[in-house]
Amino acid sequence: MHLKLEDPIILAKPIEIISDLVLEVRIKITEYGLSLIAMDPANVAMINFKIPRSAFSEFQADSEVLGVNLDSLKKILKRCGKTGSLIFEREENVLTIKIEDKIRRTFSLGLIEIESEERELPNLEYCSTIELDSQDLIDAIEDVSVISDACSFAVKDNSFVIESKELDSAKVEFSGDAISIKGENCKARYSLEYLQKFMKAAKISEKTKIQFASNHPLRLDFGNNSFGLTFILAPRMETED
């Protein structure tokens, strides 16, 4: 196996984000590129990450499965600057990671056996789809997080509302040219602890795609032509906002 990335950020940043949710993952290398699907220990959030083959400047690999500790991988990837390139090579149970910049640095990461069931992204039905600027979503989540530990997402009369309520309340409403809304009226409640973690992905994606239905899981899609990062979050089945 020999893979080379000229833009390390498309791997380093998502791995840093995913490591906040999952400790160990299976990274798959196939003819289509690199991918992983994982569930957080609480079974509340699912993560799907992909880098297509076209994003690699060099790609020589058969089908591979790499069991890695994400904290260890994250620490290595943090050593790579914005101008360097990353090379990955596997020899038996060791993944060699080379960082090429002004100097060449080489790290060896021991691969691990991970006992977990094979996962696939669920085929869920959503009644509403929203697309908006990622920074607007980041700001909205920060606004409602000062009030509560959960918030509601709602589509009503061609507007999208994020709201949290306790003794106090916060409400952010999107409509008009600032947002694209397709679908039916619906409402669901989600954990802000998880949403705040997902917003780290919004910082590396110009646009965010949101899909949800009443009291159903939320799907958030981030990325561009070089990578895709998807989160699925279970709803909070509590008294509605």
CATH class of the largest domain: Alpha Beta
CATH fold group of the largest domain: Proliferating Cell Nuclear Antigen
Distance between the termini: 51 Å
Number of helices: 4
Determine the strand fraction and express it as a percent band: over 45%
Give the overall average pLDDT.
94
Strand order of the largest sheet: 6-2-3-4-18-17-16-10-14
User: What is the N-to-C order of secondary-structure elements (H for helix, E for strand)?
Assistant: EHEEEEEHEEEEHEEEEEHEEE
Count of folded domains: 2
Number of strands: 18
Radius of gyration: 19 Å
Q: Report the structural category.
A: alpha+beta
Architecture per CATH nomenclature, i.e. the level-2 architecture of the largest domain: Box
Largest sheet data:
9 strands, antiparallel
Q: Which regions contain 5 or more consecutive residues with pLDDT less than 50? A: none
The 3D shape can be described as elongated
Helicity range: 10-25%
